[in-house]
Design brief:
Number of strands: 9
Strand order of the largest sheet: 2-3-4-1-5-6-7
Structural class: alpha/beta
Number of helices: 14
Order of helices and strands: EHHEEEHEHEHEEEHHHHHHHHH
Shape: elongated
CATH topology of the largest domain: Rossmann fold
Largest sheet: 7 strands, mixed
Distance between the termini: 39 Å
Number of domains: 2
């Protein structure tokens, strides 16, 4: 597939690397898919699943000399790549990356970045506002970017899009997780600005976005499971799944936002049903009663409590991913309350106790993990993966 090229520029610390990993896939960026350009100022990232490369101007700063150096590097890369047989290596889209937490720097940063890219006057620009953690901040940041462009001299090209993003799950506390935001919108917008013949089909982009959502969703459940493990490690017997409701509610809200579940009466009823069945419903109580029958093991009560708590959070999270994806793809609707009830009950069935026992046995065999919430969480997560769920 022919590739377009996206120039990624922004000050050091703005989060370009995290953004690139979020768009292309973390493992790809970290395991050698990024290849050096013809100079040390560039890093080129590629993917077989989307129709554009990301040309990262490593070390870019909004000063005249460094901007000129970055510009020269891009021109050299384009010429060298063309000689190697690439049909078209010109820059097709520019991502201006600005830090959403550094609001006072917006105006001057955008002016400097705009000056640095004048050589590509006809290339469409997307302003990517990184670290946009809160909805009020996103609205304010978009207004600030618009104002900064409006205050530049007449004739200055306006951005084709302004997209606030959160490139990786951000934990505020045990019960509040900010999910990745804006990444799939950025992929959509970039693809739309690509020339005909390079642009990917809607179905291909949709499939790729779904894959990215799955990765982000697993990150959210992983963070929540580790939080459950930490909270569950209490010196009293774990006897009430409702104690985990705040963590599960934060987990479910983050996942629902990731999968673009509308905030309306139907979505509220759907989310409430997940919480109800998973915390105070018959299935949750049956699971707790089953856990009381676990035979004595050579682990402290706090470790067992932690495993049980993490297992509850993971079970609810993985079932929620399965459910939200079905809704996102149109296979199920928010009105299917009986279906989501059965799905959660299935996660907390007799096999739930068996899975908890599997983790306990694994930890007994690996003593180094018993005091590490992330390690315990990583053992729990695969046992409740959505691929193990029954659809009916």
């Amino acid at each position: 597939m022919e590739r377009g090229n996206v120039l990624v520029i922004g000050n050091s610390g703005v989060g370009k690397s995290t953004l690139i990993n979020a768009v292309l896939g973390e493992n790809k960026a970290e395991t050698g898919f990024g290849t050096k350009g013809t100079t040390e100022e560039l890093q080129i990232y590629d993917s077989e699943e989307i129709p554009f490369r990301l040309v990262d101007t490593v070390g870019f700063e909004p000063s005249f000399l460094k901007a000129r150096k970055a510009g020269n590097a891009v021109r050299k890369w384009s010429k060298a790549s063309a000689k190697e047989g690439h049909e078209d290596n010109k820059i097709n889209v520019i991502w201006f990356c600005v830090d959403g937490t550094a609001k006072k720097l917006f105006e001057e940063t955008l002016k400097s970045l705009s000056r640095a890219t004048r050589m590509w006057g006809s290339v469409p620009i997307i302003v990517v506002i990184t670290k946009s953690y809160g909805e009020p901040d996103r609205v304010e940041n978009v207004e600030m970017v618009n104002q900064a462009f409006d205050e530049q001299k007449e004739g200055t090209k306006k951005p084709s899009a302004i997209i606030p993003v959160v490139a990786s799950s951000y934990t505020i506390n045990d019960t509040t997780i900010v999910p990745p935001e804006g990444i799939t919108e950025l992929i959509d917008a970039t693809n739309e600005l690509m020339p005909e013949g390079i642009k990917a089909g809607d179905n291909d982009v949709y499939k790729y976005k779904l894959k990215r959502k799955r990765v982000f969703a697993q990150s959210i459940v992983g963070i929540s499971t580790a939080a459950g493990v930490t909270v569950g490690a209490v010196p009293i017997p774990f006897a009430d799944a409702a104690l985990l409701a705040p963590i599960e509610l934060g987990e479910i809200r983050a996942l629902s936002r990731l999968y673009e579940i509308d905030k309306n009466e139907k979505s509220s009823a759907f989310l409430n049903r997940i919480i109800e069945v998973g915390t105070v419903g018959v299935a949750a109580k049956a699971a707790i009663n089953g856990l009381k029958a676990i035979p004595g093991v050579n682990l402290a009560a706090s470790v067992i409590n932690a495993i049980v708590a993490g297992a509850f959070v993971a079970a609810i999270g993985q079932a929620s991913i399965f459910a939200f994806e079905k809704i996102y793809t149109g296979e199920k609707s928010l009105e299917d309350l009986d279906w989501i009830t059965k799905l959660i009950e299935n996660q907390l069935s007799n096999q739930f106790v068996e899975k908890v026992m599997t983790v306990i046995q694994n930890i007994q065999e690996n003593d180094d993990t018993k005091d590490n919430s992330k390690s315990i969480g990583s053992m729990i997560m695969p046992l409740f993966a959505k691929d193990e769920l029954e659809t009916e």
